[in-house]
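FORM 7B: Structural annotation worksheet

SECTION A. Query
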Amino acid sequence: MFVDMDRLGLLVGRAAHGDDAAAEALVRATYPDVHRLCCALVDRRAADDLAQDVFVRVLRALGGFRGGSSARTWVLSIARRTCMDELRGRHRRRLRDANRAALGLDVPGTGQDPVQASTVSDLLSRLAPERRAAFVLTQELGLTYEEAAAVLDCPVGTVRSRVARARADLVALLGTAPAEEPARGSQGAC
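SECTION B. Predicted structure
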């Protein structure tokens, strides 16, 4: 879903000045992209809760939006940070549980989800978080490399590199090799 950037910026400005209808319109306009990003970066089960957390953060931060990037980019950068916070928390919990298990202590609820490698979301979940974020932002949400760089707070070249590596990782995960390697430095179709 592509939304007029000027309209989103206006909604952010109005919402920052207490316009509840503008805040609601901002959430409605950006929710599909936020939810897709949360699904791709974390998982589908957690996406609803994460999207809600994203918009709590967005609404708290309305006064901090300065227009240095598009409002869409700003919202998606908050979504990415929310997802990364969730993944870091999960990692800490897994380490804690592994340590408890190594000490012979009870570890409740450590069952693994069944692996379904045939789905796109499962393949994406196997990518490193930085590569997955760059890939989803550019290839699924349609952001330019420049917009994705603003969301990820990194140079454009880093985004290009992460997307290229994500593509190579996905090809490797599928167990297929491309018929012909693209020329080094080529943009490829996005």
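SECTION C. Observations
The chain is about 65% helix and 0% strand. The two ends are 16 Å apart (CA to CA).

SECTION D. Sign-off
Analyst initials: ____
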